[in-house]
Structures are given as C-alpha cells and as structure tokens.
Amino acid sequence: MLASVSGFTAVAIYLGGFIYLLRQLLKSPNFNPSLLNVMAAAAIAMHGFSAARLLFVADGLDLSLLKIVTLTFLVINLVVFISGQKKALHTMYLLLFPISAISLVAALSTPSTKVAEVMSPYIQGHILISILAYSFLAIAALQAILTGYQNWQLKHKQQNFLMRAFPPLQTMEKFLFDLIWAGQIFLSLSLISGFLYYEDLFDQKLIHKVTLSLIAWSVYAVLLWGRHNRGWRGNKAISWSLVGFIAILMGYIGSKIVLEFILV
Q: For residue 206, what pLDDT is reported?
C-alpha cells in the first residue's frame, strides 16, 4: 500500500514537472529552475521510498526486471539532480521524467516475475555496483544523444528552444566523458566482484551477460583511450558510447527478458 501511494505520488510529480519544464523552455530557455529542482527532489524522494518497498520484501530481495528498471531510473535521476546543481542539465528531465513515471507505473501494476531471494551482503554489493554502472552508462548514452543532436543542429545552423537551453558543446562533451569514466569504473568493479562472488557463472545462467558486459567494457576502454590519445570527439565519440551502451542493454535487459518472460 505504501509503495503504491508513494509511487503514484512520484508519478504525478514527474508528469507535473515534465509539463512545467516544457512550458518554461518554450517561454524562455534561461528560466530559473528553482521550482523544478524542488519538484525533482520531491519526486526522487517518493520514487526512492516506493523502490525500496518494491525491492525489499518479506522473503528477501525482489529482483524482477521492472523493479530493477525503476531502481535504475531512480539512480539516474539522483545523479542528474546532484550534477545539475553545478551544470545546466534540466533538459535531460524532458526524457527522464516521463520514462521514470512509466517505469514506476509498470513496476507497481505488474506482478513479480521472479521469486524473491535471500542473498549474502557480497552479492547485494555486487548488484548495487552493477546498477550504478548501468545507471551512469545510461545517462552517458542519453548525454551522447543530446550532444549528437546539438552537434547536428550547430552544423546545420539551426536553433530551437532546446538548443538555446543547452550548455556549450565542449561542456556537453566533457560531461559525457565524465559519465563514461564513472560508468567504466563501476563496470570494472562489477565484473571483478561478479567473478569473485559467483561460484559458477554457467549454473547462474550469467555467461551471456558477462560476455556482453566484457564487450561493452572493451568498447568503452577503446573510446577512453581514443579520447585521451587521439582526441576523439563529435560523432566518433558519440557512436562508440552508444555501441557500448547497446551491449550493456542487451547483456542485462535482454538476459532478464529471456530468463523471466521467455524461459518460464
């Protein structure tokens, strides 16, 4: 009951924040985001309470796909909110608010597709690190899309309300690589802890996830090397970051869909 009340309250605030942000951007891209920040903080708090009630159940941890997705969007919103206190990142909420609302509605309305499990603190830590890795790399993918859009608009000498609200392109690219560095560090820790704490990856049906995660790690490693040594930027950097995230998405979300909805 409490999960539903807090969850649907978060949904209402997310949708209200989305409408408010869109109207303000259409009026003036340089509006004062103070009220938006208050709405974001309230939505994130309600989202967090609901996610905790959904995940921590009487029988252990409920790691169903939709529960993990809503937790991931909670972390993404929290990272954007904290980073947005120093950078103009509120345009990201145009995508994050409605998607977060949809993820919450889906998690609250759909029965669990996986039996709750009692796990050791080490496995719980591994799961938390993995979610942090996916969250940072998901934000990086969103940032890559926005940066690519900005780059395309600048090349074609076009301006719209989003372009006027974006920071300079160099700032957008720097934030993109900051996110990738953070995601790569957490992804490395996730892979290391997985190898340490899972006794048999084959029995755990995780080998496909591990393989795709290693491919993603390699893609991001090449991208970071190219950025540092070759000065990669623009479309090349954007393309590599999206390829890495697709591998992550296929490895995690794809495997969860197969295990929970197909192989049942």
A: 67
